[in-house]
């Protein structure tokens, strides 16, 4: 009770101060939007169901480009495929800045490849892309790693003997192991307690970052940071993960062989040694920890959440799962593992995976951008450092590009002849200079994990398909799927295929 009174007094004092000062005017000419109050911004016009609902409601009145005051600060919203593309692609350099997410800002503080800006971001992104490629992204070696991990997953699912499974931590484990192989140079056993602890921290943090309380924190972080809340739990979780990464870096340093770097951390350490006389280098310990955290978190959470959503959709629409299995039987059969080269011969499966990504709408309001200079855009002038939210959900649900955007339908990605059809509105990884670093590896994982599971198992739910509910647990920065359980029932295979799947494990 005492805390509530203190919070109220702090908010009231801040409001009075700003009322006397008047509303701060941004220079430039921002797009129109709902009229803000001093300090409170557009809080009173917000939907109680969160930021996304609020933005979609404002869009109906103000169109595809408008300004919302999140507390005292203006943020320009970009809605629809065309507006997002005009900004992030047509004016890529101007819109290439990274905004902040209030709940994780105390952790990253502008370091690491995801939240860096300027020369720091450019140096880290160039290095990260080159190093990820060196360790297999887009090459056969990472495909082989994913195939091997997929077989480990099949073995683990067989142990359930068709019983009910909560897929959260298994899907986390398989996706985490791919990025761990690249960043840390090793995969972890699914029962490794330290590994499971890291995955639990990721899962809880993604839930907390996407929660309603974190969205409120985004509006008034300067005041609320002084009080207990989810932001402090997120900070503790991330610091524990950083300690794990730091310990791994120490072990890498002790065993480093300059002539034979094993992984991302080794390569970064060698670059640190090379640049140690350069006082302005971005290759230092803090950027190593924060870039490793960025890759570890993004490489685990997004793909595993997409898998969880995907199987939930397939439980709801069993005829779609059956059609994918039919295509697997025709193209791959049961006597070999799925391979990336199969993808071009499996348009329906590819369309289903694209539709899963579209319909899951995993990062609905996108990761914030800022403009790097005063920028003209659609008749307005966006002042330097103005925050930009590219509302990816409005592209993924764009009725100009998807016939029934609120319905799960793989035909959105198929032409009249049944061939795969690309859509300019399909931007689950965003677009422009800040497009997801790991898009290639994520697409490879989704294809190989989905096809391997559906080659080996039929899936059923204890809930009737018509009663399966997609309502997310949280919708904020991320869209968190509901918790559910699933039966993985082994499909009939001859003993030769079973033995092949177990080789080397």
Automatic annotation (TrEMBL):
Enzyme class: oxidoreductase
N-terminal signal peptide: 1-28
Keywords: Endoplasmic reticulum, Heme, Iron, Membrane, Metal-binding, Microsome, Monooxygenase, Oxidoreductase, Signal
GO molecular function: arachidonate epoxygenase activity; heme binding; iron ion binding; oxidoreductase activity, acting on paired donors, with incorporation or reduction of molecular oxygen, reduced flavin or flavoprotein as one donor, and incorporation of one atom of oxygen
Origin superkingdom: Eukaryota
Pfam families to which the protein is assigned, alphabetical: p450
Reactions the enzyme catalyzes: an organic molecule + reduced [NADPH--hemoprotein reductase] + O2 = an alcohol + oxidized [NADPH--hemoprotein reductase] + H2O + H(+)
Enzyme Commission number(s) from the entry: 1.14.14.1
GO cellular component: endoplasmic reticulum membrane
Membrane association type: Peripheral membrane protein
Protein family membership: Belongs to the cytochrome P450 family.
Protein name as catalogued: Cytochrome P450
The species this protein was found in: Octodon degus
């Amino acid at each position: 009770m005492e805390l509530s009174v203190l919070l109220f007094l702090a908010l009231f004092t801040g409001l009075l101060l700003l009322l006397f000062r008047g509303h701060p005017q941004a220079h430039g000419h921002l797009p129109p939007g709902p009229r803000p109050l001093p300090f409170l911004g557009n809080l009173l016009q917000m939907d109680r169901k969160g930021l996304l609902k609020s933005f979609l409601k404002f869009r109906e009145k103000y169109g595809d480009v408008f300004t919302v005051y999140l507390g005292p600060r203006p943020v320009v919203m970009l809605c629809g495929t065309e507006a997002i593309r005009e900004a992030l692609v047509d004016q890529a350099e101007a819109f290439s800045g990274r905004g902040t997410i209030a709940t994780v800002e105390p952790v990253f503080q502008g370091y690491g490849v995801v939240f860096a800006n300027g020369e720091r971001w450019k140096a880290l992104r160039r290095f990260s892309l080159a190093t990820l490629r060196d360790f297999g992204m887009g090459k056969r070696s990472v495909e082989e790693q994913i195939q091997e991990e997929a077989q480990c997953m099949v073995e683990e699912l067989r142990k359930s003997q068709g019983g009910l499974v909560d897929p959260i931590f298994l899907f986390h484990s398989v996706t985490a192991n791919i990025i761990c192989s690249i960043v840390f140079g090793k995969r972890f056993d699914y029962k490794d307690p330290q590994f499971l602890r890291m995955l639990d921290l990721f899962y809880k943090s993604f839930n907390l970052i996407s929660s309603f309380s974190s969205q409120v924190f985004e509006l008034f972080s300067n005041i609320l940071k002084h009080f207990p809340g989810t932001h402090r739990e997120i900070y503790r979780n991330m610091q524990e993960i950083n300690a794990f990464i730091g310990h791994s870096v120490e072990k890498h340093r002790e065993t480093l062989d300059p002539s034979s770097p094993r992984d991302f951390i080794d390569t970064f350490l060698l670059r640190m040694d090379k640049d140690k006389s350069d006082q302005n280098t971005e290759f230092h310990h803090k950027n190593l920890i924060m870039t490793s955290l960025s890759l570890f978190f993004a490489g685990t959470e997004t793909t595993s959440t997409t898998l969880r959503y995907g199987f939930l959709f397939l439980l709801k629409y069993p005829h779609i799962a059956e059609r994918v299995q039919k295509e697997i039987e025709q193209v791959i059969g049961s006597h070999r593992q799925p391979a990336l080269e199969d993808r071009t011969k499996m348009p329906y499966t590819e369309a289903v995976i694209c539709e899963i990504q579209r319909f899951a709408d995993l990062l609905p309001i996108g990761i914030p951008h800022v403009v790097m200079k005063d920028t003209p855009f659609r008749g307005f002038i966006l002042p330097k450092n103005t925050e930009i939210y590219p509302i990816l959900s409005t592209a993924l649900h764009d009725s100009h590009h998807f016939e029934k955007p609120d319905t799960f339908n793989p035909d959105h990605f198929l032409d009249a002849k049944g061939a795969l059809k690309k859509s300019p509105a399909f931007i689950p990884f965003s677009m422009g200079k800040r497009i997801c670093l790991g898009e290639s590896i994520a697409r490879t994982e989704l294809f190989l994990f989905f096809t391997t599971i559906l080659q080996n198992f039929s899936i059923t739910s204890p809930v009737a398909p018509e009663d399966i509910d997609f309502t997310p647990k949280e919708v904020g920065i991320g869209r968190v799927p509901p918790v559910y359980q699933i039966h993985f029932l082994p499909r009939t295979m001859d003993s030769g295929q079973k033995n092949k799947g177990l080789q080397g494990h």
